[in-house]
UniProtKB/TrEMBL annotation:
Organism phylogeny: Eukaryota, Viridiplantae, Streptophyta, Embryophyta, Tracheophyta
Regions of compositional bias (Basic and acidic residues) in chain numbering: 150-162
Occurrences of domain HTH myb-type (ranges): 24-80, 81-131
Protein name (record): Uncharacterized protein
UniProt GO MF annotations: transcription cis-regulatory region binding
Species assigned in the record: Malus baccata
Highest taxon in the source lineage: Eukaryota
Length: 223
DNA sequence: AAGGTAGGCAACCGCCACACG
DNA sequence: TCGTGTGGCGGTTGCCTACCT
């Protein structure tokens, strides 16, 4: 809703500086200044993106290593895409989330130039709401389906009652068994994703492997 | 015009896993 | 084997802006 412009970011930075001046804590907190960004980038360029505590001290930044790491990974790192998540990316996020849950770093690993933080934010602000709406729709459809199925079962039961009592019992059992499997799709996929995912040899943004598990019949999530 | 509200994003917090001495 | 330091991750918060009343 509120587009984040350069101006707004700079204003935040100024506010952040003010907040830092007022804080009694030892390390800087809040928004990063352009100067801090530059220092951090320079140190990482010469020393590499590791040993964040060392980087923080070498850069002369009064910030903790964690903060430096986060800033680098989510903002300063080269080849970062910002905003404008495409339909393809969105589709992939939804599919991966269905498969992996809130494992944002894994999901981000399949989206070049996207950070886990960005995906997490995008999910929380955009997709989760749409998913809820979709689930409600599906829930309503499912209820209608179940009512319809119950009526059919009743008809079958009545028919079988009149012929064979034993046969009716077996039919009922199998129906219940099938229904119990239909609840949570994720529970059907009994795989260890940590062992399973090896991204090294796969092309990025390739939906085939996701579709293998989730099924192409799903089609697009949001129409 | 002013205040309230919701959306969006950056950054922080707390926990956990791993490496190393 | 244990303790400590560090990095990584997901959840949450805080702030700013645009929109609504």
């Amino acid at each position: 809703m509120a587009p984040v412009t350069k101006d707004s970011i700079n204003r935040r930075k100024v506010k952040g500086v003010e907040a830092m001046k007022n804080t009694k804590r030892e390390v800087n907190r809040g928004a990063w200044t352009a100067e801090e960004d530059q220092k951090l980038a320079e140190v990482i360029e010469t020393h590499g993106a590791k040993r964040w505590k060392t980087i923080a001290s070498k850069a002369g930044l009064n910030r903790c290593g964690k903060s430096c790491r986060l800033r680098w990974l989510n903002y300063l790192r080269p080849n970062i895409k910002r905003g404008n998540i495409s339909e393809q990316e969105e589709d992939l996020i939804v599919r991966l989330h269905k498969l992996l849950g809130n494992r944002w770093s894994l999901i981000a690993g399949r989206l070049p130039g996207r950070t886990d933080n960005e995906i997490k934010n995008y999910w929380n602000s955009h997709l989760s709401k749409r998913m809820n709406q979709k689930e409600k729709q599906n829930g309503a459809n499912l209820t209608r389906q179940m009512i319809s199925t119950d009526h059919q079962k009743d008809r079958v039961q009545t028919k079988e009652d009149s012929s064979s009592e034993e046969g009716a019992t077996s039919t009922s059992t199998s129906t219940t068994s099938a229904a119990s499997k239909g609840g949570d799709q994720n529970s059907d996929i009994n795989i260890d994703v940590d062992d399973f995912f090896d991204f090294s040899n796969e092309g990025l943004l390739n939906l085939e492997w996701v579709s293998k598990f989730l099924g192409q019949d799903d089609g697009r999530w949001f129409n």
